C-alpha cells in the first residue's frame, strides 16, 4: 500500500494507493467518515472496503481529507472536502487514463461527499454508500441520480436512523433508470462494530453483479 501525496486547491493530501496489475483495471475511491468525529482513511470500515476493492482487482485509493493526518488545510464544512475527493479522483485518472470503470465508496460523511462527487463526475459508473447521513444532509441534489448503487444501513443506527435512509432509497428508486440495492444489517449501529465482513461481502456481491451484467450486455452487442 504505497503512500501517495497529491495536490489539492488548499495544499497537499496524503493517501494510500494500490495499483492493480491488470491492464485497464477499474478504479475505486474510498471516502472516510467525518473528520471532526475521528474519521480518517484508517477507519475500519473504510479500510475494509479499500481492501475488498484491492482483492477484486481494482486500482484503489483511500485518503485523508484536508486537516486530517498529514493532509494540509482545515475542515471546510463539506465544500472543501468535495474538492479533496475530486483531486483524489483526478490523480487516479492521471495515473490510469484507460481505466475500464470508476466506483465511489463512502461511509457516513464520506457517503455524502461521494454522492456529491457522483453528481459532478459523469464518468462514475457505480457507488457504495454505507450509513449515508440522510437525516443531517439534504440529498435532494440527487435529481436525477445518474446511476444506481448499493446503500447499506444499520438496523440500530443511533446517529442515522434506518427510516431516514429508507426514505432516501425510496425517493431514488422512483427515478427513471435508477435501482438502489438496499441492505439493512440486523443489530448494526453506526460504527458497524461487528459487521465489517458483512459490508465487504455486500460490496463484492453488488459490484460483481453490476460488472457482470455490463459484460453480458457488451457481449450481446
Automatic annotation (TrEMBL):
All residue ranges annotated as the Xaa-Pro dipeptidyl-peptidase-like domain in the record: 24-138
Organism: Komagataeibacter xylinus (Gluconacetobacter xylinus)
GO terms, biological process: proteolysis
Domain Peptidase S9 prolyl oligopeptidase catalytic as annotated: residue spans: 150-204
Record key words, sorted: Hydrolase
GO MF terms held by the record: serine-type peptidase activity
Superkingdom of source: Bacteria
Family matches, as PANTHER family: AB HYDROLASE-1 DOMAIN-CONTAINING PROTEIN, ALPHA/BETA-HYDROLASES SUPERFAMILY PROTEIN
Protein name, per record: Alpha/beta hydrolase
